[in-house]
Amino acid sequence: MLKIENKGDSHYFFVVQSAQGNPLFESEPFENQEAVREAITAIKPRIKHPGSFERLTDHEGHFRFALKDPQGKTLGRSKPYGSEAGMENGIRNTQAGILDSSLG
């Protein structure tokens, strides 16, 4: 599930959650809801493209991914995963959440 959230500081984010409601991905802040919708609209056609996701490993050995827009700018990052397989599953669920959304 994808939703737009306002964190109370006049910044908007889009968040992708699992079917159980666990956060999978949170975007970087946007100035308004329209900017969030524009970013989602821009990424939807490319979400299945391999270059849309950057796979990362932090210094503690956790796996994360970053979602990139068509120009290569980072739109946001995932939560940490304990395994590479978990991260890949998170990527698939993030793709599905964005593609299935009615936003954008």
UniProtKB/TrEMBL annotation:
DUF1508 domain ranges (all copies): 58-92
Region (Disordered): 70-104
Xref: Pfam families: DUF1508
Alphabetical list of SUPFAM superfamilies matching this protein: YegP-like
TM region positions: none
InterPro entries with a match to the protein in the record: DUF1508, YegP-like_sf
Protein's name in the database: DUF1508 domain-containing protein
Origin species: Robiginitalea myxolifaciens
